[in-house]
Write a structure and sequence with these properties.
single chain, mainly alpha, 3 helices, elongated
Amino acid sequence: MYLDLLLPLADMPDIEPDFTAPFFKGLIMIASWVLAAGLVIAFIAVVLCVILLVFKGVAPSQMRALAGAALPWALLGLIALSGITGIFTWLIGLDFGFGTTFGG
């Protein structure tokens, strides 16, 4: 016997989340600012590490060694935050409270 003949077919409606509630709007705005600030801080950390490693006269050797150890972690953080921000932008959209929503 066929299983589709035994079980009645159910019509499933499309479910779409409603992000227009005031709580979600505030939460999305806070998340957007946190993700943007994290991206800026991670980018600045990567740039500072590269500057310290490339220009030998800028900092002492101990600071260059610290920058060399911190660079992979800063790059991993930048990559992870970029991915999370991209997925968040694609699914929901970034809203900084200026009246314009980016993505979504």
